[in-house]
Amino acid sequence: MAEPLNVFTIPAGAPFLPVLAEALLDGRLGPLPDLTRDPLALAGVTVLLPTRRAVRAFRETLIRKLGAEAAILPVIRPIGDADEEDHLLDPGIESGAERLVLPEAIGRLPRQLALAELTLAWGRAVRRDLLDLAPDEPLLIPASAADAARLASDLARLMDDMETAGLPWEKIRALAPEDHAKYFQITLDFLAIAFEASPAMLAERGLVDPVVRRDTLIRAEAARLAANPPTGPVIAAGSTGTIPATADLLKAIASLPQGALVLPGLDQDLDEAAWKAIGETGAASVGHPQYGLKQLLGRLRIGRADVTPLGVAPSALAWRARLAAEALRPAETTDMWTALRTGFVEPRALEASLAGVTYLLAHNEREEGLAIAIAVREALETPGATVAVVTPDRALARRVSAELGRWDLKVDDSAGARLDLMPEGVFARLLAEALAEPAEPARLLALLKHPFAAFGMDPRDCRK
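Above: the chain sequence. Below: its structure as tokens.
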């Protein structure tokens, strides 16, 4: 009989990294050494987190928890950002036979340019009979080099998604019969770039796709851990295993004698009918927030009852998480919404779950960004307060950052900054536009007014 797995979860609403640090230091992550008596024992622990940002934040959290005590921090490495071998594979491996040697991954820009070149070649060779074109009628697929670059970008994303999911390209051919529509046949001809022309091009250059390299590295680490279990504890935290290769690694870690897996926000209160409906009753439930965790538990061959919770969320946040779970329950079980109010057993729990939540209706994007910036500025009046703005809208994030600049507040943007929006990038773009259209007065004037346009002179003299 297999040994029980050490799988834990930190509920939604509880501070993930502080709870993880406390559980690590208190020895609550399974058969791990008591780190409260010997802080130096941390040096033998390996912690894998989803991103480099999480690695930095967890390191700072551990330092705060340890206070003035001397300690050597554990080895903390990212999984999701593993671009290079040293970021994921054990750096302690000395044997050349054990090290995995892979071709270099093609860069993002060279890859897009190569796919754009293949797209242009496909446009010249596409079967004209499928489109019922006259011999002298122009074919506008792609319409231009810029159009080919856009098609190449979409194709690269599709290639990454297919490779990540581990789906063979042959499945696309089965989406529609051969006589279904001629335009689908054109699409199949175009996708042949991905599963025929692109691999041949990469092999000729001695390169691989970035996703292929990443997945190979992750699976190699999973195989190494299974074959040679490390002597120290290994903890993987914060990952949902939505990438199959990552799920294999998480399973290998959870199976180690001193391994532990900490899941983020597994919903252990959702009723069994709703949990069973996730991912089993149609494509719609595949997008459920708990779908990835359910798939991972299936790989581990355990149920929600086998997962040990760590930490407790504040009551208001716990009720808010419950409300969000009810709002996002699978469509097949939404008839249970009628019992939502009676399901909140504590008095006024439904109202308490929305305490502190504000709904703001802005008239335009500028008002929206300004309102968020003012809310951030007001919150920072409290000493020691920290504020996070979470949005998928990059334009809104830049607008909020610009508004906060009024108060000299610098924003740590986890998504980075676009080069074409930095002063250097703007100047390079203006220069290129002026060279491309030298007779356009507005472009030339914009270049002349840029602070970087000094023409070999002292900038102050040039401004005069």
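The CA atoms of residues 277 and 332 lie 7 Å apart.
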